[in-house]
Amino acid sequence: MSQSPQELLAALRAAPPLVQCITNYVAMNIAANVLLAAGASPAMVSDAEEAGEFARIAGALTVNIGTLSSPFVSGMRAAIEGAQAAGKPWVLDPVACQATALRRRTAADLVALKPTIIRGNASEILSLAGEASRGQGVDGRDSVTAAEDAARWLAAQTGGVVAVTGESDFVTDGARAARIAGGSPYMPMNTALGCSLTGLCGAYAAVADDPFDATLAALAHFAVAGRRAHEGAQGPGSFAPRFLDALHAVTPEALGAEAEIRALESVGA
């Protein structure tokens, strides 16, 4: 039986999950604050000597390849092994995976380890599926709709959930699919919000029975908070603190009332 975003936010707030975040240098502070504001407990543990051990006690693991290095990759692999051994969900954020040979190789290796959830922009998802993208560096320049078929294919290949995020979001597990609306045009003007959303997907995955439900709830929470924060913001600078406040202020009841989720009747709908 599916769990609603309202139910999952209530569960997250009742027992804040510990989320291990292996993320990039730019995103660490922002991602930690987003998780804290939403109601979760972040831990930026990435060194290979402890990452695997820590993943066994965390509720979920998130892996972000934004600032790649050999030590980071070793920590990612150790953490994924630990999470899988303990039966914990893990989320992959394939930042700019189309940009360089190192990123393409690393992303492909991590996808082969079967993430529970993959969250990326349209250009990243297209690249992971072996299709051409117009992404430049970390900037996605493809539309979400252009990547929906690639997301379905990728979900079928990995057995996990794939989320394509942008002006509106698309989520699929290869069989089910949904679109989520909301947010703010100021969100892409704030660095690392996408990386932070990956962390929030991990937080919801830690309390959900079904990663598809978890992903919908995380994206809906972000979208509702983004729309609320946009009201009264004068630009991206004033939006940022309003967004953290909005993440914290959204109640389970408000999330249930304000989330704009449209389930698609079938694959290809």
Automatic annotation (TrEMBL):
Cofactor(s) required, per the database record: Mg(2+)
Catalytic activity entry: 5-(2-hydroxyethyl)-4-methylthiazole + ATP = 4-methyl-5-(2-phosphooxyethyl)-thiazole + ADP + H(+)
Known pathway: Cofactor biosynthesis; thiamine diphosphate biosynthesis; 4-methyl-5-(2-phosphoethyl)-thiazole from 5-(2-hydroxyethyl)-4-methylthiazole: step 1/1
UniProt GO molecular function: ATP binding; hydroxyethylthiazole kinase activity; magnesium ion binding
CDD domains according to UniProt: THZ_kinase
Annotated positions binding substrate: 44, 192
The entry's keywords: ATP-binding, Kinase, Magnesium, Metal-binding, Nucleotide-binding, Thiamine biosynthesis, Transferase
Keyword Phosphoprotein in record: no
Keyword Manganese assigned: no
Binding-site residues for ATP, renumbered to this chain: 119, 165
NCBIfam families per UniProt: PRK09355.1 (NF006830), thiM (TIGR00694)
Protein purpose: Catalyzes the phosphorylation of the hydroxyl group of 4-methyl-5-beta-hydroxyethylthiazole (THZ).
Family assignment from sequence similarity: Belongs to the Thz kinase family.
Protein name: Hydroxyethylthiazole kinase
Organism: Pararhodobacter marinus
Gene transcribed to yield this protein: thiM
